[in-house]
Amino acid sequence: MDEFFVMAQEKSFRVYSFQEEYGLKPLFDTKVVEDWSSCLNNPVLETKQFISSNHMDMCRFSGPKDPEYTKVAAALTHMLGIIESRVGTAKHRQSASRSQSPGTDREPSIPEPQGVRNDKDNRRIPTGTRQSIIEKLYFTEIDERLTNLTAAQRGTCRWFLTKPEYTSWRDPTQQSGYGGFLWIWGHPGTGKSTLMKLLFEEVKRDAKRNPRGGASPITLSFFFLARGTLEEKSTVGLYRSLLHQLFEEEADLQDSLEEALTADGARNIQANGWHEEALKQTFSHAIRKLGDRSLTIFVDALDECDDHQARDMVGFFEDLCELAQDNQVQLRICLSSRHYPHIETKGRNIILENEAGHKKDIEQYIKKKLRLPTSKDAQSLRLDLLEASRMIFLWVVLVVDILNKDYPSKSIKQMGRRLREIPKELGDLFEMILQRDGENPEVLQICLKWILFAERPMKLQELYFAVQFGLGEEGCSGAWDQDDVDLDAMKITVKEWSKGLSETKGKAFVVQFIHESVRDFLLGRYKYRWDEASENVEGRGHEILRDSCLAQVEAAIDQNVHAPRTPAGTKAEADQYREIMRSRFPFLEYSILKILHHANSAQHCGLDQGDFLGQFPLDYWKALNNVFEEVKIRRYGEEVNLLYLLAQKNLANLIKFCPPKGSCFYLEEGIHPSPRYGPPLFAALATGSTEAVRVLLEAEVQGQPSDSRLRGLLNQSLEEKRHLGNFSTRFRFLEFGGPLFHIAKEGDATLLEILFDSPFTDIHANSPDPWSGRAPLSYAAGRGHIDMVTLLLEKGADISHRNIHGQTPLSHAVGGGHPDMITLLLKEGADIEQGDKNDRAPLSHAAEKGHLDMVTLLLKEGADANQRDRHGRTPILYAAEKGQLGMVALLLKEGADANQRDRLGRTPISYAAEKGQLGIVTLLSEAGADIEQGDVDGRSPISYAAEKGRLDTVTLLLLRSGLHFDLKDKSGCTPLTRAARWNHTSVVEALLQSGADADSRDRDGRTPLSWAAGLNNQVIVKVLCASGALVDTKDRQGRTPLSWAAGSGDEATVKILCGSGALVDTKDEQGRTPLSWAAGAGKETIVRILYGSGARIDAKDDQGNTPLSWAALSLSRRVGEVTLGVLCARGAYVDSKDGQGRTPLSWAVSKKHLPAVKLLLSMDADITLEDDRGRTPLWYAAQNSDDEMMELLRVA
């Protein structure tokens, strides 16, 4: 494994370890494979992630969208991306190198000392954290809008590719004065998004069709969608998407994270998600690293993003373009928008409706889609339609559909009059469509409200039943009989309900408005036409949706839909039942998951939800929710009350109807066991429910004056949208820990101060958690949280408190790498030399981990560089063993003893040599380390290096003048013996070339050749024989190398030894020959080789056993009758008796080995021969009650 780590660091390997998060019930909730055993525990190389399942279920995914599967898939995708990008990246670097002129000054190339990590390897952000935050850039709908956009009709939009403004924008030589921007403006419905899709795809294709040499161009896109998720309509989503695409295409740009973020900042993102400023910083640093790679960005529909966010984004893009220019990077940005928001900026501008090419596209569409003859009247109607369109593509699409319904029942002239009656404004056209027949106005209203106010885009079958429940149709159960109505029929029905203003898109059959302008119209001028007398259209809309959801839940109750409190059976059975429910009741899942969200939105709009919550069927709701929840840990038990639910789901507007009884930091009385996240406040913190956190904490400080410092601190934190600590969904509440334990571990100073000052709490600053014995101060110090530590010390926290491992707050501050925290604790009286239960001081741990800045600080503050722990080890010993070259150099400079011995007598150079740390061995030897000093076992550094196969280290040590390389340890082993035993050929050769004694004998009299032969190290056997090693040297058992090789069964080694003149009949202390050992081991091939080399077939040992006797004695499932046959075929005496008078047949019968008995009988073995006790083979068969054997012997 050590070799793997070295290679992995050199090659920049990335290892992904997926671990089980939960234990098994039969094992009392313990894990099958513990965390320490299921990974490499090497944060430099490894990314660790938990799969939210136990050992049995962690590879049973429900499908491609299973959140646990996406973790694995993301890792695999990322690995593939790295593989694919490395060739391109290598080419880019070669190109950049070639492009540098010969006269350009270059930094001299300074080789790194072996064992020192370069800047790339010495990352500030742990690998696991780095990979996690990269994965957090992705969101499910990242390219949903682009994918669902209808492609441009054949032959349309391509005129844009030759427009001078566009071609000059793409020409890198014509960027001066335009800032790299191209703006496409247009009225709603002009077809901007369709055009942007075409441009994006053309630029991508062009890069593949016409590679310009050097680095590949990069093309990114983002299409805002106002009716989509938060990520689809916000600039945070835009930056996440662009960075995700950028890192996928060019993996080397991921290093920009190191320059943009601190380690703590990255950990905060890992816990709480990306925020805008971090995204901008990372993007800026990525731009700097582009080199000669050009970048083109397409951003569509700025008007579908918040106006303030859009303006800020454009300003940021302007800064990016200036940054790119300063760094000689080609950056081009194409933006499309309606004519608002109006943003003044540099760039080329194109107004789509003013373009002749756009007009021609509309003309072509009319010609193709308006189904009329080629008469003059028809042509005149087409021209009238074109002129009336005002170049609004959407208007043309809708009007063509209206006119096509008139033809051929109406004449061309009648259609012309119809055209003149159609409103020319898009909004007026929408209104005409909604009012044209006056049929089913209630259905229309309900359908439009569902599309408008649904928490997410609705699937067709969901919307179909949602509308029915919204209408209050009697007897509606929500059950779908697919034989009665299929998806095609639903599609027609929903289109009729919405008067054609909705469409069904994609394989998921998602219903949406035909254009975002429909939503604008409905929430703008048309909202005063809704059927409610109140102007609170949104609030009333959410109440209608809430009631529709409630009606579906109540229908499920009325029908006794089975909803077990906990889904029974295996995961596969639970998944199957869930799919059955989804198929049978399409609207039920949405109703369960979103009913409370609609109630919260209605409350936000001022509609009181107290009565609704008072009658809410919580228990049945939880049971149904658990049916649809795929991850077991996220299901709700009896202990979950409504307040916890509202806090976890960030339904802050509803919390006032069920405020906490007492402090929100504690579980309410009677709740046991604790829910997953514990008290409501922690549930809100863990899930990032900031509004719920605000409401709960405001209730906590309600007794404080409005101008109090505590209220000001809370308001400032919430207004700045600061995360109150590092809480995340991985958080687990431990009842024995109490709130102080959890806040110290995950929270921040604001929470801590509120906890201490709350009138509902009584907190002691030194309360340790009973699990590890760590006090709150220890956790806060380990996180580097200065404000929290200061507050805890003010509240009387013990600065010297030790956990069950004896670690102090200072130890944890050092372990966390927080120099400011170390300075503070030392200033407050922390003991710099205080050790843990193994007497290891903070300096020792910091040295082992290679924290140079920590060690420098501790030494400056007076730490002893030679302080010994319980095992007699000093910091330099740990640093040397772990390969921390820079640390060893620092400690030597600060007076560390290079020859310091621990209780095992080992020195720093001993550990470094064993690990193959060549740079450290060199450094220590030059500092005066004794390279021959033995430990308590007499082993020198070269002994350890030889045993581990560290050729470079062995070679280095051999070059040191005066080294006694045949120095024996207490077991009599020389370095050569150890290298031969552990099969390190190159080390053996190096030692032999340096004059090592090939025939040195250890305490058992064994030579290097003896060990190599017995362990089947055939190459080393050949090397030793070639060097003149004695082949017949006997050890204390009298065994020769050939004896050991014959018994271990390596044919090649036996041939080498026989070919080198080894005696084949030499006997050991028991009188056994090599042939005896081979026969006893069942090695028939070696028996053949030895016999062919002249071995005596019937040589007896001191017990009278011949090789055939040993073959019979050793019969078992592993050793069969084949060896007996080989020996008999070569003349072995079949009736030879041993010292007990027993024959091979006697032994074969007692071993119950029928094939061997049959073989011996076929060789005329005598069944009547008695042993010294007068027992025949038949007696042994009878003794074993072996009827088959007895019958065989009688017949014989």
Describe this structure in words.
This protein is mostly helical and 1196 residues long. Among the domains are: 92 residues, no CATH class; 207 residues, Rossmann fold (3-Layer(aba) Sandwich), CATH 3.40.50; 66 residues; 66 residues, Ankyrin repeat-containing domain (Serine Threonine Protein Phosphatase 5, Tetratricopeptide repeat); 88 residues, Ankyrin repeat-containing domain (Serine Threonine Protein Phosphatase 5, Tetratricopeptide repeat, Alpha Horseshoe). 49% of the residues lie in helices and 4% in strands. The chain has 58 helices and 9 strands. The strands form 3 sheets. It has a 5-stranded parallel sheet with strand order 4-5-6-3-7, sandwiched between helices. Strand 8 and strand 9 form a beta hairpin. The longest helix is centred in the first third of the chain and has 33 residues. The radius of gyration is 41 Å and the shape is elongated. The two termini are 59 Å apart.
Strand content: under 5%
Structural shape: elongated
Q: Note the gap between the termini.
A: 59 Å
Radius of gyration, in Å, reads 41 Å
Structural class: mainly alpha
Order of the strands making up the biggest sheet = 4-5-6-3-7
